[in-house]
Write a structure and sequence with these properties.
Elements (H helix, E strand, L loop, with lengths): L2 H16 L4 E10 L2 E9 L6 H18 L6 E6 L10 H6 L4 E7 L5 E11 L3 E6 L2 E6 L3 E6 L4
Parallel strand pairs: 2-3
Antiparallel strand pairs: 1-2, 4-5, 4-8, 5-6, 6-7
Helix pairs in contact: 1-2
Amino acid sequence: MDDVRAASIQALLEPILSDRAMELVELSCRPAGGQLLIRVLVDKVGGVTIAQCAQVNQQLGQALESSNLIEGSYTIEVSSPGLDRPLISKRDFERAIGEDLQVTVKTTDGRFKDMQGMLLAVQPEAVVVKTISGNVTVPMAQIQAAKKALRW
């Protein structure tokens, strides 16, 4: 997606999300079936409902129509990232404080170690995870993969 179009769509989207205490997780545009597909992933503390996604979709559609930003037909898809999405940014980890995580860490000898535990804190360059063997501080640079642990 070209940067100018993405920035323009994001500028339209931000106040819509802000009014709902939501944040933009991801925005993508790509051609699909002869039209433009705009995919928007949103999240907020406590999660996002289908009805809230529908409201954001409707308001973004109205804003796009009013702005004449996109020529031709387009489809908007608004959804939440899902329970099992990877935690990547510092903000992702901050939203997950108090939750159980599965984390894959690259150790100093180059091997990979899986750990599971509750995320206690996010520091500027690390996270603190409470595991069965105690609290572990994991540098962000060593985290290879992390996601919320699903409980069944």
